[in-house]
Amino acid sequence: MGQSAGIKSLQTGHVGLNVTDIERSLPFYVEAFGFEVLAEGKDEGRRWALLGREGRLLVTLWQQSEAGFTTSSAGLHHLSFQVETIEEVRAAEQVLRRLNAAFQYDGVVPHGEGVASGGIFFSDPDGIRLEIYAPTGADSAPAPTGAAPTCGFF
């Protein structure tokens, strides 16, 4: 694979998400992921929030959508967050259940048959598909999608 001239190192910065109601979405992301609100705009017609951890920007929310997420439109497939252990995934699952998040699968599932990595797959209040996973510890459950990657079609 080639490298673009001048780019020596590349990593994902932050992810911006359009939401329909920031008053509903902001508490969900803060509670579910333990984000801090780094900055917030409350002007009528220009509502937004910058979310992060330890001062690092990770997710931005922009109240500018009229309808929830749909898989029939091009764009974000899902947003995934990696944690260190499967116990952290299970702890996040309990928080998300208290928040009444919609889950795609029941509990922790592997990314594929015989694969150690895996996690939970759920949606935010606008239906944006999210994942929290760990690199190991999920291989005790069966893969829910057969040969296809678990995160591919949920």
TrEMBL record:
One example GO MF annotation: metal ion binding
Keyword entries, A-Z: Dioxygenase, Metal-binding, Oxidoreductase
SUPFAM superfamilies named in the record: Glyoxalase/Bleomycin resistance protein/Dihydroxybiphenyl dioxygenase
InterPro entries (alphabetical): Fosfomycin_Res_Enzymes, Glyas_Bleomycin-R_OHBP_Dase, Glyas_Fos-R_dOase_dom, Glyoxalase_1_CS, VOC_core
Pfam families: Glyoxalase (PF00903)
Identification of the protein by name: Putative ring-cleavage extradiol dioxygenase
Gene3D superfamilies listed in its UniProt record: 2,3-Dihydroxybiphenyl 1,2-Dioxygenase, domain 1
Residues of the VOC domain: 11-135
Organism in which the protein naturally occurs: Saccharomonospora marina XMU15
Record's signal peptide: none
